[in-house]
Design brief:
By secondary structure, the protein is an alpha+beta fold. It is 31% helix and 20% strand. It contains eleven helices and 16 strands. The strands form three sheets. The chain has an eight-stranded mixed sheet with strand order 5-4-3-6-2-1-7-8. A five-stranded mixed sheet has the order 9-10-13-11-12.
């Protein structure tokens, strides 16, 4: 056995630079904003309405909760302790003691907190004029007198680095905290205007099923799951599935708990409901539940069973299946499109390796055949790039991809088309109940345009900006439109000859 020379002790430490990592833990402004809103909502007192006021300007965001627990010196001290594990109330959405502070750093450059504890005639003021100085700091807290004994917390983020969409903000609050509006637990205003919720577009002829069941893996405060299941009206404009809440806060939606969803059959989009999963741990930014947890797996199994009869009923519901005429039009459009692609391929092969529409790139040593699209003169596009490429450039290597089989069937009415894998082959699925399909009455050019939209998409490993995608689409669709009539006529002549062969 090896001889131990010396035993060492290594100690963990927290460096202020970790703040920078936590500041970057958001996808967009709304994720960070909700962290601050969650802190406000979590400050409420049972059976008492909490009033939340949100003020936004181009440079500041202020969130104030009034009538809650408020914050005193001890709470402010705990707030400054990153990652502190502490006792929490039954309504507290927090878990990791870092979300609100991280959100401030993501959204702005400085912050100010004004807080008063419930039942006290004092308030405290604390500020940080440089959130992006990542050192661990000490803060000076000012104590002031007030006649107001209601608890409140006002958080102001200054020097906003993100643009906040005010309409999106109001819709977000109404959607995310809907159960709290319905129960009267909160009242929320944005720039003085009340945030209101709207009724779900439910099918009133369907009797809503309410459910609840106890859970074995509950916590100190929550030992049961409750919810309801209904049906959406046709053309409701919202996605089906279950909306999943934790403590009155939306965590995930469009959930089918292991059952097939609307991608399997569009009729399943009519299933709609809400479920409260107050005991299940959520991810750090509350964008989903911990789906590997025992709590989730227990509930998923129960809800799979509860949803089963609803799934069976909706799978048996007949939808607006495509007519024989619509199927025939799709077949004809595919034939024309295939001929257009053959014609384009011939033009590209004849054009050699130069793509006049793309910025240049150095050629490789070996010779490659590049299939690059050069639009016809009738498209009137300038063939010279705004910035000339290097003298020895060959352009982007964007090859003309071989296309796929086509089919038509009803899907979610907000989806125009999609690509599916069909036994190793790609399949273009066209939605016959998409409003555009109906408005165009399945016109051949609409179907070809749908194919071009899919064909112009970049491959998974291919980087393409939105402008480049639109340019590719415009040029390919222009080619199809320019040659549509001649190709269609040529196909019709071929078919006529096959029907009436020359003697």
């Amino acid at each position: 056995m090896p001889k131990v020379l010396k035993s060492l002790i290594l100690k963990e430490s927290f460096e202020g630079g970790l703040k920078h990592s936590l500041y970057s833990n958001f996808r967009k402004w709304s994720d960070a904003f909700l962290e601050l809103a969650d802190n406000a909502v979590s400050n409420r007192i049972p059976k008492k309405k909490l009033i939340i006021s949100i003020l936004t300007t181009p440079r500041t965001l202020t969130i104030t909760n009034y009538g809650g627990l408020g914050m005193g010196v001890d709470e402010l001290r705990a707030f400054l302790q990153w990652g502190k594990i502490k006792p929490r109330s039954p309504y507290d959405l927090g878990a990791y003691s870092q979300g609100g502070k991280s959100a401030m750093g993501y959204l702005g450059t400085s912050m100010k907190i004004k807080a008063s504890p419930m039942g006290k005639n004092v308030y405290y003021l604390m500020e940080d004029d440089n959130l992006h100085n990542y050192e661990l700091k000490s803060y000076s807290v000012i104590k002031m007198k007030t006649d107001d004994r209601n608890g409140y917390v006002e958080v102001q983020v200054q020097g906003l680095r993100r643009s906040i969409n005010e309409n999106e903000l109001k819709a977000l609050m109404a959607t995310v905290y809907r159960p709290l509006f319905e129960s009267g637990g909160v009242e929320i205003k944005h720039n003085g205007s009340a945030v209101r919720i709207e009724n779900f577009p439910l099918d009133e002829d369907f009797k809503i099923q309410k459910f609840y069941f106890p859970v074995k893996k509950g916590n100190e405060y929550h030992q049961q799951v409750r919810g309801w299941i209904g049906r959406l009206t046709t053309r409701s404009g919202i996605k089906g599935g279950m909306r999943c809440y934790k403590l009155g806060r939306l965590i995930s939606d469009k959930e089918f708990f292991g059952q097939p969803d609307a991608h399997y059959k569009q009729s399943l989009n009519f299933l709609f409901g809400e479920v409260h999963l107050d005991h299940i741990p959520a991810t750090t930014n509350k964008t989903d539940f911990d789906r590997d947890s025992g709590e989730w797996k227990e509930v998923e199994q129960q809800l799979f069973t509860i949803l089963q009869p609803h799934i069976d009923e909706l799978l048996g519901r007949e939808l607006e299946e495509p007519t024989d005429e619509e199927k025939e039009r799709v077949k004809k459009a595919k034939e024309i499109f295939n001929e257009l692609m053959k014609l384009m391929k011939k033009k590209l092969e004849g054009a050699g390796t130069i793509n006049l529409l793309s910025e240049g790139q150095k050629p490789k040593e070996e010779r490659e055949v590049k299939l690059e699209y050069i639009p016809p003169s009738s498209s009137r596009r300038k063939q010279i790039p705004r910035t000339p490429p290097p003298k020895d450039s060959v352009g982007k290597r964007r090859r003309l991809k071989e296309f796929m089989d086509w089919t038509i069937r009803p899907m979610d009415e907000t989806v125009r088309s999609k690509i599916e894998d069909n036994g190793g082959r790609k399949l273009l699925v066209i939605n016959n109940i998409f409003p555009g399909f109906k408005a165009a009455r399945g016109h051949l050019l609409y179907l070809i345009e749908t194919a071009v939209l899919q064909l112009s998409k970049p491959d998974i490993d291919e980087k393409l900006t939105i402008d480049e995608y639109l340019e590719d689409f415009d040029e390919m669709y222009a080619f199809c439109c320019s040659n549509f009539s001649s190709v269609k006529e040529s196909l019709e002549k071929k078919k006529n000859k096959s029907y009436y062969p020359v003697a």
